[in-house]
Design brief:
Shape: globular
Strand content: 35-45%
CATH topology of one domain: Methylamine Dehydrogenase, Chain H
CATH architecture of one domain: 7 Propeller
Helix content: under 10%
Radius of gyration: 26 Å
Structural class: mainly beta
Largest sheet: 6 strands, mixed
Number of strands: 69
């Protein structure tokens, strides 16, 4: 629904902080290949099946629990936000979609069923999917969602598949966010990719790239739209906008090149001047390339306010432009977010403008009709025309994908599992019940074993809390702290906001573990209710002027201890952390003791007074080891890094298992676990996609861990009942885990697994069922053994888990295999070296 434009400043901070993670050379490297000779094929994880690596306990695999899809009121089946749609150039039944944070999915039956293709890639944040017009099996996938909302995540560059999405190779790592991929229809070896930070061009099908100089673009400007004349592909049009600062900018605007991007002319005739251009979408009419349409959203410095989403038209190749006075304000107040323009392939007078709804003009922009008007999900992002029939098209929005044919829309969300969770919750009395707050698809409820979740409250969903003493009592949220309550399991809701102010997008909300009528929420102050939301009173002053609380935690051991954190980054927008040990009478600012990080989540330990954890998206550039989880034993006065061997992956949430004391961390790439109080960490991702984990919840009745991913729906894993049971399970079989990081950079340029380069050391972990002789060896793609520091390794190993650091700095870029051999088994896995 409605997005807060001011909230995108947090994305800008994240972009700046992640600015060095994907820069450098564009050397392609195959990520998925066939098994090499002399390797036991049956023991190798086959990447084309997109199976994730096993964890230390093979029996503890994750299983999807949906939504696949969800059911949302009048919209019917909904899935998640779609960034891009591509229709196969040969078979009209084949479509590809790029889900905003769920990767690429494919259908071969016109949308009756869908299959995920990129679950094993390093990032599932999606910008664009495109098909080579000369070879329908060649697919390009640009990662990093270029909608720049508060939940639009950076990616890992551009990937290419030559087998219809079965396997992928990385071909460019320059873009953090991808807005366009254009493939020259005359010479398909010429490819353009655009987004943040700029435009890149390849003339050899992605093997090498050059950056095009379009304007004096600084690091806050982004190329949001790129189009070409299909009859003369050397003629390009681009919109450069700036989401992250105010005032008019000379380097934003609409640009044209007639020499394939070598030189650019800034277009002016009839376009607004002296304005801060936020986003512009350009569409060239395929049947008459002199006709262009431009959907423009920006800020007018004269009024100081945001403009409506205006549509301009050119009939002379962009040299002059005319505003269309009858065009609707189709983007509403969020044209920077939902804005898509498309022209019929057959008729330059038929144009579509997608924003909140989808509008159509059949007379060149004079008159407009609202095609959707509430019949499909709002917030439109992608339009693709069917092959061979310009009257049929596909529409992607915040609720998934629809097909338009014969004057009506058909829902194609079928089995798509791309729901974007912000939070998850579990009914403590009925473990089959799960709840979750999602991006624009409501607060959802699920009864296992069904994969369908049903909306019980609309809009964007936030925190969900089920009262442990009465599970018909549920608290939920709409955005900005609009807290609601039901006493009949979700049939009827009332607002419980008396005394509150406006909060953060997803406002923190916690319940006192010992008194269920007592809840706390954070806005600019910490508020408390003692009557189940009937009224709220502040128990803190305004903690930081002009800032909102983003994370809140109450100690289960001593509910008088409450932590309040404010997310931010170093410099002018730092993170803050405050604590009270007397129920809010006094608050202590412990921010100066918090290392220089981007604070995301704070969590009080369930058993130990004074112990508290903090998670971070961004690690500090001033340290050599990643610092994504910190722990304090003294209420935040001092901190210790407990992720010294943790891959440098942005970390969003944390959960402490009260039964085993194991620590679970939800990251941008699945779940990691520590069984030794943070001294060491292992990937805990068997059968789990490389998805962003936004939240975790534990049901101790069944000892089941459930996670809400942002883009790949929800998963659960049933754990064993105690730490001793888990340790008993470790040595019952030979298990070889996926090395991390993978891929690994040996040139200091790029590490797809990590948010910054972590050197050339990979860690190989394995478990053994007894004290036995074993060897660890490494082979190249041709099956030749290579020797590097740490491998080969031979000897007798104890029963249990082992970690071996291997220095791969001497290896050339490519695919390699590591093999664990015992008397009874041979197990191999792949890793990729990039430079």
């Amino acid at each position: 629904m409605t997005k807060d434009f001011a909230s995108v400043i947090l994305i800008a901070i994240a972009v700046l902080s992640l600015g060095s993670q994907f820069s450098g050379a564009q050397q392609p490297a195959a990520l998925l290949v066939d098994t090499p000779p002399n390797i036991d094929e049956s023991a190798v994880v086959q990447f084309p099946s997109l199976q994730k690596s096993a964890t230390s306990i093979a029996a503890q695999a994750w299983r999807s629990i949906g939504p696949a899809p969800a059911s949302y009121y009048d919209y019917g089946s909904v899935s998640g936000r779609i960034s891009s749609i591509a229709v196969d150039t040969v078979d009209a039944r084949i479509l590809y979609i790029a889900a905003a944070t769920g990767g690429v999915w494919k259908t071969s039956d016109g949308g009756s069923t869908w299959t995920p293709l990129t679950d094993a890639l390093p990032r599932l944040s999606s910008g664009v999917v495109a098909i080579d017009p000369s070879d329908h099996n060649t697919i390009y996938y640009g990662t990093g969602e270029a909608h720049y909302s508060i939940d639009s995540y950076p990616g890992a560059g551009v990937f290419k598949s030559t087998d219809g999405g079965v396997s992928w190779m990385q071909v460019n790592d320059s873009l953090r966010y991808t807005s366009r991929i254009l493939i020259d229809p005359v010479n398909p070896s010429t490819i353009y990719i655009a987004g943040y930070p700029g435009i890149y061009k390849s003339t050899d099908a992605g093997q090498t790239w050059v950056r095009l100089t379009i304007a004096t673009v600084n690091r806050l400007a982004t190329v949001q739209s790129l189009a070409f004349d299909p009859t003369a592909p050397a003629t390009l049009y681009a919109c450069v906008g700036s989401l992250w600062n105010t005032g008019a900018r000379s380097d934003t605007g609409i640009f044209k090149s007639t020499d394939a991007g070598v030189n650019w002319q800034k277009l002016a005739g009839g376009l607004p001047t002296g304005e801060y251009i936020t986003r512009g979408e350009i569409a060239v009419a395929p049947s008459n390339p002199q006709i262009l349409y431009l959907g423009l959203w920006g800020k007018n410095p004269r009024s100081g306010g945001n403009d409506t989403t205006r549509i301009f038209k050119s009939t002379d190749g962009g040299q002059s432009w005319t505003p269309l006075p009858g065009a609707p304000n189709y983007g509403g107040g969020q044209g920077w977010y939902n804005n898509v323009i498309a022209v019929s392939p057959a008729d330059p007078g038929i144009v579509y403008a997608g924003g909140i709804d989808l509008w159509r003009s059949t007379d060149g922009g004079t008159n407009w009709d609202n095609l959707t008007n509430g019949t499909v999900h709002v917030d439109q992002h992608a339009i693709a025309f069917a092959r061979g029939n310009p009257d049929i098209f596909y529409l992607g929005n915040d609720g998934g994908i629809w097909k338009y044919a014969n004057g009506r829309f058909q829902n194609l969300n079928t089995n798509l599992a791309i729901t974007q969770f912000y939070t998850v919750g579990i009914d403590p009395q009925r473990p089959e019940l799960s709840y979750g707050g999602t991006q624009d698809n409501g607060t959802l409820k699920n009864v296992q074993p069904s994969l369908t979740w049903n909306a019980i409250y609309g809009g964007d969903g936030g925190v969900v809390i089920v009262d442990p003493s009465d599970t018909n009592v549920i608290y939920a949220e709409y955005v900005y702290g609009d807290i609601v309550k039901t006493t009949d399991g979700g049939k009827h809701w009332i607002h419980v906001t008396a005394g509150l102010e406006k909060g953060y997008w997803i406002t923190p909300l916690v319940m006192d573990p010992k008194s269920h009528q007592v809840l706390y929420t954070g806005m600019s102050k910490v508020f408390k209710t003692t009557n189940g939301g009937g009224s709220w009173t502040p128990i803190s002053p305004q903690l930081v002027s002009g800032r909102l609380i983003t994370t809140l935690s109450i100690s289960p051991v001593n509910p008088q201890v409450i932590y309040a954190g404010l997310s931010g980054y170093r410099g002018s927008y730092p993170s803050y952390l405050f604590v009270t040990t007397d129920g809010g009478e006094h608050w202590i600012d412990v921010s100066n003791n918090l290392p220089d990080r981007y604070l995301v989540r704070v969590l009080a330990d369930p058993k130990i007074p004074g112990r508290v954890y903090a998670t971070n998206i961004v690690s500090s550039s001033s340290v050599s080891a990643p610092v994504h989880i910190m722990r304090s034993e003294d209420h935040g006065l001092t901190w210790k890094n407990i992720t010294s061997n943790f891959p440098d992956i942005p970390t969003k949430c944390i959960l402490i298992d009260s039964l085993t004391n194991f620590i679970y961390a939800g990251t941008y790439q699945g779940v990691y676990r520590s069984t030794d109080d943070g001294a060491s960490w292992q990937a805990f991702n068997d059968q789990l996609p490389n998805a962003i984990v936004d939240d975790m919840a534990m049901n101790y009745t069944t000892h089941t861990l459930r996670i809400g991913t942002h883009g790949r729906s929800a998963f659960e894993c049933t754990l064993t009942s105690s730490a001793s049971d888990e340790h008993k399970g470790l040595p019952d079989q030979v298990a070889l885990l996926q090395s991390y990081p993978n891929p690994v950079s040996v040139g200091g340029i790029y590490s797809a697994m990590d948010s910054r380069n972590t050197g050339s050391i990979i860690t190989i972990q394995f478990t053994l069922p007894s004290d036995i002789s074993a060897s660890l060896r490494i082979f190249d793609i041709l099956g030749r053994e290579v020797s590097v520091p740490g491998a080969p390794l031979n000897g007798t190993f104890k029963r249990g888990s082992h970690s071996v650091p291997v220095d791969v700095s001497s290896l050339s870029p490519g695919v390699y295999f590591y093999q664990l051999r015992t008397n009874d088994s041979v197990v191999s896995r792949k890793f990729v070296v990039l430079r």
